[in-house]
Amino acid sequence: MGQITLMTDGERRRQWNKGDRARILAAIAEPGVVVKEVARGAEIGASLVYKWRLESLKAGAVTVAGLAPVVIEAAPMTSS
Fold it and tell me: What's the pTM?
């Protein structure tokens, strides 16, 4: 049977300030870096790092290295 940990002391979740988040997001933007290793070094889950990156991308605060924005325009109308 598995082990269950019961937290009764009111332990709170750790709060990350913007500077810490920016430092971690900058670290994962480096070429060849593995997100899981950066997350493990910061003692957080990789899913949280991916969540922060997605939030930053949506806010326009972070750009992904090696990718360029794509602009889709309608094809010009040609007369036959």
Answer: 0.59
What is the distance between the alpha carbons of residues 29 and 20, in angstroms, rounded to a whole number? 14
Residue 12 DSSP label? P
Cα separation of the two ends of the chain: 75
Listing DSSP states for 14-80 in one string gives PP--HHHHHHHHHHHTSTT--HHHHHHHTTS-HHHHHHHHHHHHHHT----TT-------PPPP---
Give the separation between CA 80 and CA 77, rounded to whole angstroms.
10
Residue 63: is its pLDDT beyond 60? no
